[in-house]
Amino acid sequence: MDVPFLTGDSRATILVVDDTPDNLTVLGELLQPEYLVRAASSGRRALQVAASQPRPDLILLDVMMPEMNGFEVFSRLHEDPLTRDIPVIFVTAMDATEDEERGLDVGAVDYITKPLRPAVVLARVKTHLELKRARDILRDQNRFLEAEVARRMSDNQLIQDVSIQALARLAETRDPETGNHLLRTQGYVHTLALALREHPRFSGFLTDKNVELLAKSAPLHDIGKVGIPDHVLLKPDKLTPEEWEMMKTHSAIGATAIERAERDSPRPVEFFTLAKEIAHWHHEKWDGSGYPDGLAGDAIPISARLMALADVFDALISRRVYKPPMPYAQAKEIIVEGRGRHFDPDVVDVFLAEFDTFCIIADRYKEE
What is the arithmetic mean of pLDDT over 239-245? Predict the structure, then answer.
């Protein structure tokens, strides 16, 4: 017998597996009043029925069957993602103590011995169906909670990203000549970081997470310009030495603003660390002749070293009131000339390897 005793029912479904037709009949008649019963007279047929609809909520599985015994059937059920979570009650002869112990060891939820006692069968079946229903409810709640946590994290991340862009754009409004400078430099920094991930000098720092944070931090490199007076920031002519000193304070102003935001945060935020480094030291030079602190070599944070090259390259190829845009090839030559003086030599080498990508980014975000 390998066909359902009853179909088209909305009640819990029980699969009864036994190679003896009389046993199938007895269990079917006992369970039918309360449950939808499906039956299989062999292990192979049981696997087919268990994987088909309506999928069983519980399986009563005889241990002693020809060709494929109950333990083999149980093992196959647990190998299949469609059936691994269906609880199984083993059914065997009363004196098969070893079978009972083995069945419980491999993961059966219970054991019923023959000859069958109707009240015991019904009680065990009811108990394990209730347990399964509770597990299913809990699993569904966990899935909902996981989805809700993921949604809220995504919302928080979006808010953070938009806030970063808003702050960066605020600085940009003070310096209208920058245009798409933020998008271009962000792309350059990301390109350099990706290319340097496997480099022995950079691999420890340039994790996947830090590469992502660097790209997000890059637009805040000139946030300190909001603190520079208009007569200096917007001056169309060359700055005087005094004005230039005032202009150079934008890096410290930006770092201080980010540091204050960091102090106001109720918990540490990794993003702030990189954003602060970039804002503070992206004008430092490899030979120590930069500002504001005259850092040299590896004392300059990696984040600031990448930003330094990205910022200079973009400044060279961009139009300013005091100069026309420079051809990409000429800007490349100037970057090369700065290797070991202005820029980390290894960063320049990667820039040369990725120069075509820099040009693509520059073309993509050209000024209107």
Answer: 92
